[in-house]
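User: My collaborator sent over this chain with a note saying "see what the structure looks like." That's all I know about it. Can you take a look?
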Amino acid sequence: MSTPRTAVTDVALVPPELCEAIRAAKRVGLAGHVTPDADCIGTLGALWLALPELGIQAFVAMPEGSVARKLQYLVKQAGLEFASTEQLAECDLVVVLDTAKQRRANIDGKLDALPGVPVLNIDHHATNVGFGQWNWIDGGASSTAELIYLLLRALGCQITPTIATLLYAGIHGDTQGFSLSNTTPRSLAVAHELAEAGARIVELCERLNRSRSRSEFDLLKVIYANTCVSDDGQLAWSTASYDEIHGAGCCAEDIDDQVEVPRSVEGSRVVILFSEGHQGKVRMNFRGERGVSVLELAKQFDGGGHHASAGAILDGPIAEIVERVLPAARAFVAALPPEEEE
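Assistant: Without extra context I'll predict from the sequence alone. Here is the result:
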């Protein structure tokens, strides 16, 4: 099964110089961001499978221990084999996916370890700084998977059922099952075309959404127990210390969608998950509800991301970081315009 004949999405959106740069290469390195999510792994896997059709040898950067347990499913779907930094350094081109800043690249030694290798940067984060020789940044895209689907069609690659499954995973993950404000007519059209191409949607959604290990379940109990809400109900947050995360049998790579626990508190407009996956290094997941952009709040702590979904990392004990960030979050919420009553 290949790209559906009823395709309606516009491949003219793909910058032609990107296709030229890829076609000119014989060896292409592929890299995503640290703590890769479904969008990141799905796009890496899709390109890994598609590029050989063009006579291109692909090499994927994925340092050991990078991938959360439940996302190993996507790694196996793609049959990914991970390359060394030395192999990446011998490539004609490296494509960096879903990564807003160079320091977030999931490569041992970062991009500095690949001197002289030109970089093609494809991303949907609004804060992407355009660090590549070629840059395709579309902040209006639901996911990088949405862009890679268009790129593969522009390159004339077949959209096999496995590639469709991987790309569908990226869109599904970044839109929270098509429930967030980044769900657009184009993202729905791409998802429809991926379904027509044979994406294994039921299997995928069960593995990503309804298949938790005992340790992941125990970590969720910690997040629920630690969830707090401001007096006005507009700010909700939760915490998970290093000892709590590892005591549950989890690690830093397993922290991501637990932010949905405080996010589910009715009435919350700004949500934060503080997690200390690595001792003394606190990651903050910021979420905005009902049109609230949390990007400026994240930027106060040298973070970035999207308007409704952003992040930042600070060094220090988690209690001190929470004490530092919450006043800024409270002030941010207090400055929000009041919501219109229905």
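A starting point for your reply to your collaborator: The chain has two domains: 11-209, 215-334.
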